[in-house]
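> call design_seq(struct)
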């Protein structure tokens, strides 16, 4: 076995996605890549995009390829980040969406955007030599769609906003629990319902008050700031008392979070009537 093929086998695994630019960087020319395709070591998915046979590529393979090989600034966000950190019990066998934070007005590769659609139609052949790839055809469920979100509601980013987590043996960047909670609430009600987001937020009992303070201090979205503090107090999370609301931009006037909801007078946002039962001891909303 050639050294380049040996390198490919050792630096990928069945189901991995690889792009030609990355292969070329490591000495595998387009002509050699085509030879690998012919011999069953790679399968061509799109122009310049290949998969390692032996297992059907999954969404985490696509994200890993995007970030590691293209050095694209993306990370798992919101509900997906919380789920894979064990902060949400909404992990299901068939997820509908993968929340992914990408910079605003940044063009994603076409192969990546289309990945959930065409990947489920793949029928990957097995390599001629299974020394490196065992004969385990994929039995995974269909790939979920991408749900692209952005944290451009923050005045600036902080190093503590991102962490690394492992998803099916793939290391991926993800929002910290604090940023993921912010992204979750920022998506109410257009992407996720108030009730669903609130149920997830209920389990966030161990957020860092220092990180929450930093995050909300940098936030430009008044409605999300208010909703974050409303739910923190509603669920009486222990970290909530250590957040100084006077440093956070809460604006003035009323904000509609839930259409047809009841007005919470402490934070001046509309919420489902059920959520007003235990908020009588909230602080008054600052007028600044």
């Amino acid at each position: 076995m050639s050294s380049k093929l040996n390198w490919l086998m050792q630096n990928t695994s069945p189901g991995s996605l690889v792009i030609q630019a990355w292969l070329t960087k490591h000495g595998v020319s387009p002509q050699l890549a085509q030879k690998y395709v012919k011999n069953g070591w790679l399968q061509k998915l799109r122009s310049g995009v290949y998969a390692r046979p032996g297992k059907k590529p999954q969404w985490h393979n696509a994200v890993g390829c995007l970030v590691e090989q293209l050095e694209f600034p993306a990370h798992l966000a919101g509900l997906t980040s919380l789920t894979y950190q064990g902060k949400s019990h909404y992990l299901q066998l068939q997820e509908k969406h993968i929340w992914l934070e990408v910079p605003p007005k940044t063009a994603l590769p076409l192969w990546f955007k289309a990945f959930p659609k065409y990947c489920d139609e793949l029928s990957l052949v097995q390599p001629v030599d299974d020394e490196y790839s065992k004969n385990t055809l994929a039995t995974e469920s269909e790939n979920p769609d991408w749900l692209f979100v952005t944290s451009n509601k923050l005045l600036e980013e902080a190093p503590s906003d991102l962490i690394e987590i492992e998803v099916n043996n793939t290391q991926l960047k993800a929002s910290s629990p604090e940023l993921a909670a912010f992204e979750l609430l920022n998506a109410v009600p257009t992407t996720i319902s108030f009730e669903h987001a609130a149920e997830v937020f209920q389990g966030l009992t161990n957020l860092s008050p220092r990180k929450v303070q930093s995050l909300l201090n940098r936030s430009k979205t008044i409605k999300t700031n208010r909703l974050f503090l409303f739910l923190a107090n509603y669920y009486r999370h222990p970290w909530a008392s250590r957040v100084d609301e006077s440093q956070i931009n809460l604006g003035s006037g009323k904000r509609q979070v839930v259409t047809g909801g009841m007005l919470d007078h402490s934070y001046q946002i509309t919420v489902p009537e059920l959520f007003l039962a235990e908020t009588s001891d909230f602080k008054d909303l600052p007028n600044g």
